[in-house]
Design goal:
The complex is a heterodimer of chains A (264) and B (345). Chain A contains twelve helices and five strands. Chain A is mostly helical. The radius of gyration of chain A is 27 Å and the shape is elongated. Classes of the chains: A mainly alpha (264), B mainly alpha (345). At the A-B interface, strand 3, helix 2, helix 4, helix 7 and helix 10 of A face helix 1, helix 2, helix 3, helix 8 and helix 11 of B.
């Protein structure tokens, strides 16, 4: 059963297996940007139609023009239907913005859903530039425009996160905290999962931070860990370990039960 | 307490990878079906991923790994509960015959299932015809108000037009028939899509579209009949109109079906369920409308525009009447031998 989350733009699924997970809903702005990309792609396709139709001139100019006229009409409609069906809910614009159309109940998309949500763009576009559809999307709990409502679909964000690489955290260095089992136990028992996760994310993303922010962040985390896991052995008195090294050692203790291979 | 995340990920990764590969294969080949052993394995992997997700949620707040597993579980859930994989009567029909079966069975059955909506579309259009006729009888200048700019060629006296086109003996259609046909198809399909889509305005927009179409028909018809050009009118309109006008009515029918789902009078299902119930029918109706309008566009460009002495009006009228009768018979009787779904009006 899927229900929209009250706190964030997410669709919560409660499975019979006792698992709850969320799909992040895409908002109207992101969807509009994806539509702009698709609009540009469609315009390029329409420009190319003229070249594809040239060989048909051997069958007569009238026939070639007729084909061009019909394709100019059909391509903008068929573009969305064909891509969303063949690419499992994505168009080039949605793929670029990492969005995907999915069934609102978590099931696989059916063809009539793809067809209907694209055909009903005719009313979502009113009075222009998706004003009606965008307003509906902004006001709707599932961020659905009118076509999505009728087809029972939602547009979600589709990050496919990889499993985090924890081995690179220590990079083969010795963790001096492991020589103090009592300290390690205090770290494991007192540091809540949210703070541990925050520290892990800080380490994984440390290279993307600017220097000042990086120093400040790890100083804050180190100070927090020192308070929570006190008392610390004398060899870890202030200044003995750099803040980032301290945080790295703490995260290693929290997330890796076995000692690092080198010097462990 | 936080689980040993690295060991947990290392141990379970092989199962997650196998699950992801299976999902990629199923998603790549939409028609793929798993053997029993494969399906059992897939279900086991799904349940294992669910259990892993539960452990992560309970013992660790590591977001990246949790999102990875959520993504796998979500995809697997969709595949396991995919309704398109349920066996249906159509499974016995070979793939290449399915479009034919859709045309000869699904489409007319869908039309009959929503016959009341079609009747409503007919009544609204007839009301428009009456309004257009009455308007023109009361005030001749109403024609210029009723007719949109694309019908400017009908603004003059009908007898002048008839005399002119009969004198040209089809010469006015020597060039550009295919382009004209293509433009007609595109315009009519666009109008049909809008007529159906406006069902989302609780049917008000659909009523307006159908009524206005009726007004135009009524005004043009009254104008030609009053000017003594009734035979010409029938010969000109019937060949393509006997398909085009019912197609617009079918689009209106789809619009009213959509409106009925939105309004939900006398129905206990929630809005989502009502929409899910009618979505396949709307697709079928609009698909049928598009096919009919392609045919109507061809007829209008290559047949309707030729008048006497090139083509006798009696021939054109007979063609239109036969076509209308054939369409009525098709929609009324085709696919009745199937016991797929009971007819519901």
């Amino acid at each position: 059963m899927a229900v929209p989350s009250e706190k964030s733009r997410a669709l919560l699924f409660r499975l019979p297996e006792g698992v709850t997970f969320a799909l992040q809903l895409a908002g109207p702005v992101t969807r509009f940007l994806a539509w702009v990309v698709d609009l540009l792609a469609t315009m390029v396709a329409l420009q190319l139609i003229g070249y594809f139709v040239l060989p048909l001139l051997v069958l007569g100019e009238d026939f070639a023009t007729a084909v061009r006229v019909f394709l100019f009409f059909a391509v903008p409609i068929v573009y969305g239907i064909a891509f969303e069906w063949l690419w499992r809910g994505q168009t080039p614009g949605k793929r670029a913005l990492r969005l995907r159309v999915v069934d609102a109940g978590g099931l696989r998309l059916r063809f009539h859903q793809v067809f209907l949500r694209n055909i009903l763009r005719a009313v979502d576009l009113l009075p222009g530039f998706y004003l009606l559809g965008g307003a509906c999307c902004a006001l709707n709990r599932r961020a659905q425009r009118l076509g999505d409502l009728a087809a029972d679909t939602v547009v979600v964000r589709t990050a496919r996160p990889a499993v985090p690489d924890l081995a690179q955290l220590m990079a083969g260095k010795y963790n001096s905290l492991r020589a103090h089992p009592a300290l390690a136990a205090r770290l494991r028992n007192r540091i809540p999962p949210t703070e541990a996760s925050l520290a892990l994310q800080a380490l994984l993303r440390r290279e993307t931070l600017d220097a000042q922010a990086r120093v400040h962040l790890f100083a804050t985390l180190a100070a927090r860990f020192r308070i929570v896991a006190a008392p610390w052995p004398e060899e870890f008195a202030d200044g003995a370990l750099a803040d980032e090294q301290l945080v790295r050692n703490c995260v290693d203790v929290l997330f890796r039960a076995r000692a690092a291979a080198a010097g462990g | 307490m936080i689980i040993d995340l690295e060991r947990f990920a290392a141990t379970e990764r092989v199962y997650w990878t196998e699950l992801e590969e299976t999902l990629d294969r199923l998603e790549r080949d939409g028609g793929a079906r798993l053997e029993l052993a494969q399906a059992e394995r897939f279900y086991y992997l799904y349940q294992r991923a669910c259990a892993d997700l539960s452990r992560l949620a309970t013992f660790s707040a590591e977001p990246e790994l949790r999102r990875h597993l959520e993504s796998l579980v979500a995809r697997a859930y969709g595949e396991l509960h995919d309704p398109s994989r349920e066996p249906t009567t159509n499974d016995s029909v070979a793939g290449w015959r399915r479009p034919w079966r859709w045309l000869t069975h699904t489409f007319p059955q869908t039309f009959r299932r929503h016959a009341r909506a079609f009747l409503l579309a007919v009544l609204v259009t007839l009301a428009g015809v009456g309004f257009g006729s009455l308007g023109l009888l009361i005030d001749e200048e109403a024609k210029d108000v009723f007719l949109p700019s694309q019908f400017s060629h009908l603004s003059g006296r009908p007898s002048d037009r008839v005399r002119r086109e009969e004198a040209e003996r089809g010469g006015h259609m020597r060039d550009g028939k295919a382009t004209f046909s293509s433009s007609l198809m595109a315009n009519n399909i666009r109008v049909s899509i809008l007529t159906m889509s406006l069902g989302l305005t609780w049917g008000v927009g659909t009523v307006v579209e159908l009524f206005y179409n009726g007004v135009i028909l009524g005004a043009v018809g009254t104008d030609y009949i009053r000017d003594g050009q009734g035979i010409f009118l029938l010969g000109w309109l019937l060949p393509h109109g006997s398909v085009e006008i019912p197609s617009i009515l079918l689009a209106g029918q789809a619009g009213f079906v959509l409106a009925a789902a939105l309004i939900g009078w006398g129905r206990r299902e929630r809005l989502r369920e009502r929409f899910r119930a009618v979505a396949p029918d709307l697709t079928t109706l609009l698909g049928g409308v598009a096919l009919l309008l392609v045919w109507a566009g061809l007829i209008e460009a290559f047949f309707s525009q030729y008048h006497e002495p090139v083509l006798p009006y009696s021939l054109k009228i007979a063609f239109g009447v036969l076509q209308l009768a054939g369409l009525a018979a098709f929609l009324g009787f085709s696919g009745r031998t199937d016991a797929l779904r009971p007819a519901r009006t």
